[in-house]
Prior knowledge:
Elements: E1 2-4, H1 25-34, E2 73-75, H2 86-100, E3 132-133, H3 134-137, E4 159-161, E5 195-200, H4 202-210, H5 216-221, E6 244-252, E7 264-271, E8 282-298, E9 306-312, E10 368-369, E11 375-376, H6 388-400, E12 409-417, E13 431-432, H7 451-455
Parallel strand pairs: 4-7
Antiparallel strand pairs: 1-2, 3-5, 5-6, 6-8, 7-8, 8-9, 9-12, 10-11, 12-13
Amino acid sequence: MIKRIDIALLTGALLVSAAVFAEDSEADKQAETTGTAPQAQNTKESTPPTPPQMDCPSTVTVSSTLPLSVANTFPQGYQAFNVQDQPCFDMFSWQVFAALNWPADSNGNPESGANVNIGTDPGNFRVWEYFDDTANVFGSSSTAKKGSATAEKFPGGVKIMGKLSKVDGSPGSPLSEFIEASGQPMVDNNLNYLVYEVRLNPTEVSYIMQNGLNTKKGQQTAPAVFFPTSVLPTQTAPGAPGSMEIKAAWKILSGNDQVSQFYTRQATINVDKAHSVSGKAFSIKNVTVGLVGMHILYKPSSFGWIWSTFEQVNNAPDINDLSANTNYAGKNLYNHDCSSSTCFQNILNKQKTYKWSATAPYAATAAFNDGKGNAFGTQTVRMVPIPDYTQAINALWQYNLSGTVWANYQLIGSQWLGGTENTPAPNSTFGVPHALSNMTMETYDQASASCISCHNMATTTAGKPADFSFLLQHAK
């Protein structure tokens, strides 16, 4: 028996041609005045890449419309990974990434118009950046109760970062705005910490508020947590996206970083006294940060949650590609000047509390010193190579994104809820494929990391299952 998964992929989507992606001088001027780097001027190859063999359409459509489901056909009770199924999830992941990174207007809505595409208005914040962060949603003073004002999200056009703890935001929290799940930060090639932010889309925020899940008290009596899935359109009603969580990793750009190769923002980073070398809180104002990693957790109309994880293409080399004769200059998270016999990969000395210096390099106290007067960062390498089928999908999308900064990003993989003969998806709790990690967020446990296996342990503050979301632990 064959079960057909209905699709609603990008209804009314805009297929973007190569000519549309040429950046005009007005966009460059805007980028200069906002401090946001202009889009990278990548040269488009004359012949498009060949897509992998796949059980779904291979046409790339760059659109501001979120897909509501995955285009694929599965036998009922499927239980094994299929190399022809996975590219369908990778196509879905890219479609979501493109829609979220569409330029937004001042209300957070995707810009529209005949001349609008993903590469226009580089000075504008992207759609996902208007989603509420955890500070807006959880606690008794939650602004989500009355609707947070989008115009006030970015005072002066600057992103405010800091105090975005994955747990509770208090000084000394085990997971803060620059600490990974392993309890360690990432120190980049310029000896600065990566910083993170977490955001929730309106669908998930509405569900949290309606069910009283934004407070510990509300979670005590709340019904079983099951975040909404996407709603497919009908003849009488439009569709609606399902729940979504986004975690983004940002690098403070400095030194020899090629700024034009990143999506960038101007940011102020607030450091509390618990993480300050001086013991006094301070702010690092108006630094340029570049996007280096992006986790997207999305619940479409089928398969439960789907994890899509992206990175900037120059983050770090693969462990299998390391060679004494290879120059890895220009990597974001790897320093080619430190030999493998001196700098061990994906290792950072554990400290009770990681401290920020008030001046760059901000992570100097966490850096590795080789005893010769040289300091180095985490020396990150990729432990699990990107699969060939995902690389093929990346090539398709990067071809269609040529001329924009988004061609400098790559999908690392897509993970979804598998099933067995007795437990068909989306009721299963194991991930397909079984492992997935992002170097910027799971640096120290890449080889064993699985988004779904980890999030399957998520509970509310009342100890109840939290439907794969750790964010409910933010409740006060």
